[in-house]
Amino acid sequence: MAHPTQLGFQDAASPVMEELLHFHDHALMIVFLISTLVLYIIVAMVSTKLTNKYILDSQEIEIVWTVLPAVILVLIALPSLRILYLMDEINDPHLTIKAMGHQWYWSYEYTDYEDLGFDSYMIPTQDLTPGQFRLLETDHRMVVPMESPIRVLVSAEDVLHSWAVPSLGVKMDAVPGRLNQTAFIASRPGVFYGQCSEICGANHSFMPIVVEAVPLEHFESWSSLMLEDA
Questions:
Q1: Using an 8 Å Cβ cutoff, are 135 and 104 in contact?
Q2: Structural domains of the chain in order of their starting residue, each with its CATH number
Q3: CA-to-CA distance for 161 and 179, rounded, in angstroms?
């Protein structure tokens, strides 16, 4: 999860998020190179009194500074499109979960099970135990098996919400009357935090998302316990 003074992204916990981090580094290096070149040209033009007649009127230079930006845009666009298609790809999910946004909590329904669903509320600050995170912990976590494709169906019951977990590279709008879907694979066990990312009213800041990825056998034990309690 994020920590104070952090400048970069959270550590990737899914293959898609790893791809997004690589693309970010790729695009940032291009931006650095362009910025350095432009800064050098500005400093050179301001600091020198010399004039080069070939720069004032040169067909070759105009061709270069027209073609080069086009090539750079292609170098950015191709990997970007690849990741966009990867993020939309949902192949044979092992588990489907429906996440419903409410003012101001989330409810989860495991549609592959007959009666497995619960509401997930933020734990108030005064009820936190040592080691828990303020404004991020919930009374019920969304538990998923690791290394399994998970499909999440996202909708809302009242106003616009957005289901987002940065570590997993997932962000999907929850729209009343519309069912959106996204997918992820948790590549390692852990607890991953997110928050509603669409301003949805007075308590928008107080409807966190907690995804807990566990080994498959632990998930089966958890689901059995939840079904018994239901």
A1: no
A2: 13-86 (1.10.287.90), 93-227 (2.60.40.420)
A3: 12
- 190-214 pLDDT per residue, tens: 999 999 999 999 999 999 999 999 9
Pick left, alpha or beta for residue 138 (phi over 0 → left; psi -120 to 50 → alpha; otherwise beta).
beta
CA quadruple 43, 25, 161, 3: dihedral sign: negative
Cα 92 versus chain centre, distance:
21
Q: Which residues of 179-215 are buried (b: 16+ CB within 10 A; e: fewer)?
A: ebebbbbbbeeebbbbbbbbebeeebeebbbbbbbbe
Alpha-carbon dihedral angle through residues 52, 53, 55, 58, given to the nearest 10 degrees: -160
Taking only the tens place, the pLDDT of each residue in 37-66 is: 999 989 988 888 877 776 667 788 888 889
**Strand arrangement, sheet containing 180-185:** 117-120, 105-110, 95-102, 149-156, 180-185
pTM of this structure: 0.85
Q: Which residue has the tokens 């329904």?
A: 109
pLDDT tens-digit readout, 59-91: 888 888 899 999 999 999 999 999 999 998 888
